[in-house]
Design brief:
By secondary structure, the protein is mainly alpha-helical. It has helices spanning 5-31, 34-54, 65-86, 89-94, 96-113, 133-151, 159-177, 182-199, 203-226, 234-244, 255-266, 273-276, 278-281, 293-326, 330-354, 372-390; strands at 124-126, 129-131. A hairpin with a 2-residue loop joins strand 1 (124-126) and strand 2 (129-131). Helix 3 packs parallel to helix 16, helix 6 (133-151) packs antiparallel against helix 7 (159-177) and helix 6 (133-151) runs parallel beside helix 8 (182-199). The longest helix has 34 residues, at 293-326. The N and C termini lie far apart (63 Å).
């Protein structure tokens, strides 16, 4: 009786391959930051619960309309999350040029084919879905700049590297600014500062960029308008003047911030509940499901509910900053730093503007504000962070 040694060897090889694949899968799962994954899951669920209460009276006969809609966006975001988790950071680094070109091209397409809504061109329609490219651009912007800087890691002391990075960043930031979307442009600026810092840009260069940013802001807000050249739209100017002088026109230019502070204060320690939140239910508070969602939530759930939300954000930020320290390469560290700082900046500005400590900029509150683009983009960004952690090891730059 002949023995098929070749067939037996092939079967043994297949068994070893299957065993190795299972071990690799288990190893990958063990290396995930389950604290971050859990925090994001709880934060998304908490945000859905918040939106269900905030929008309960917005659609007659359909109290859960926005909850179902937002849950659909979460499902789409989980697809982006899964794809980002599966991609290796090294693959993203090699694609930084197409990512940059695609990001800029999509933003240009907004001006060519995007609908005008409230005087702005920020969206593109794809069938029945309207998305905001600048929201996805927050992540793509970080990936592209991280790839550029990682390729030039040995030339970070050369001012030409920083100048080139500044030129690359200026185009998408400028396109977002003229949509106009001043708030999102600020998020891009914060992400740019973060990637430069993590990449190892010299302190003197960072200080020079800070001074340049301050001078630019002074020119846009005061010097150019005094000379008769207005860069900002009238409503944007009103937002800044209202922030600096919140009591100047409570029935007009500062109406939104006045009502927002009333809503936050009215929540007290444990909130008014869904039925008793008159600022939200009677629409005294504008944009209570988007720009001022934190004020609405604070009115309904009070200090306790708002504190839980902020602690969840703090947990995500802490774990994200930790990923910067365990990234397996410079590109991954830069990406993690850019994502986390952009995320933190959005939280600070959105929460701050509801309490009068930051100007009203229209930046959404991550995982809470109603909106598909923001939800999908943020979940995808969390997938990138977890991918970096799972594939990372502590490293030292030479």
């Amino acid at each position: 009786m002949a023995i098929d040694y070749a067939g037996t060897a092939t079967e043994r090889a297949r068994t070893r391959a299957r065993r190795a694949a299972r071990l690799h899968e288990l190893s990958f799962l063990r290396r995930l930051d389950w604290v971050l994954a859990g925090a994001v899951a709880v934060l998304v669920g908490y945000g859905l619960w918040a939106i269900d209460g905030i929008t309960h009276h917005d659609v007659d006969g359909s109290p859960h309309y926005f909850l179902v809609r937002q849950a659909t966006f979460v499902a789409a975001g989980l697809v982006g999350f899964s794809v980002a988790l599966a991609l290796k950071p090294s693959h993203l680094q090699r694609l930084w040029r197409p990512i940059y070109i695609g990001t800029v091209g999509t933003m240009l397409l907004v001006f060519a084919a995007g609908p005008v809504t409230r005087g702005s061109r920020r969206w593109l329609d794809v069938g029945s879905f309207r998305f905001q490219p600048s929201e996805f651009g927050k992540l793509l912007f970080v990936l592209a700049l991280a790839g550029f800087l990682a390729d030039r890691a040995k030339r970070m002391d050369d001012p030409r590297t920083t100048t080139s990075a500044l030129m690359l960043a200026a185009l998408p930031i400028g396109l977002v600014f003229i949509q106009p979307d001043f708030g999102t442009a600020l998020v891009y600026g914060a992400a740019f500062a973060a990637v430069l810092f993590v990449a190892g840009t010299r302190w003197l260069t960072l200080a020079a960029l800070g001074v340049l940013t301050l001078i630019t802001a002074l020119c846009v807000l005061w010097l150019l308008p005094a000379a008769g050249t207005h860069v900002l739209k009238p409503y944007q100017v009103q937002r800044w003047t209202g922030f600096l002088h919140p009591d100047s026109d409570p029935a007009g230019a500062t109406y939104n911030i006045t009502q927002s502070k009333v809503a936050v204060g009215a929540g007290g320690f444990d909130g008014r509940g869904v039925a008793g939140a008159t600022q939200t239910n009677l629409s005294y508070l504008p944009e209570h499901a988007t720009d001022f969602v934190f004020a609405s939530f604070a009115e309904q759930r009070g200090f306790i509910g708002a504190t839980i939300l902020l602690l969840l954000y703090l947990l995500v930020v802490w774990r994200g900053l930790r990923i910067v320290t365990v990234a397996g390469d410079l590109f991954s560290a830069i990406v993690a730093g850019g994502i986390v700082i952009a995320f933190l900046f959005q939280i600070f500005v959105n929460v701050g503007m509801t309490m009068g400590i930051a100007p009203i900029t229209g930046i959404p509150l991550p995982f809470v504000s109603v909106g598909g683009s923001s939800m999908i983009a943020n979940l995808t960004a969390m997938g990138v962070l977890l991918s970096i952690h799972a594939r990372g090891t502590p490293f030292r730059r030479r």
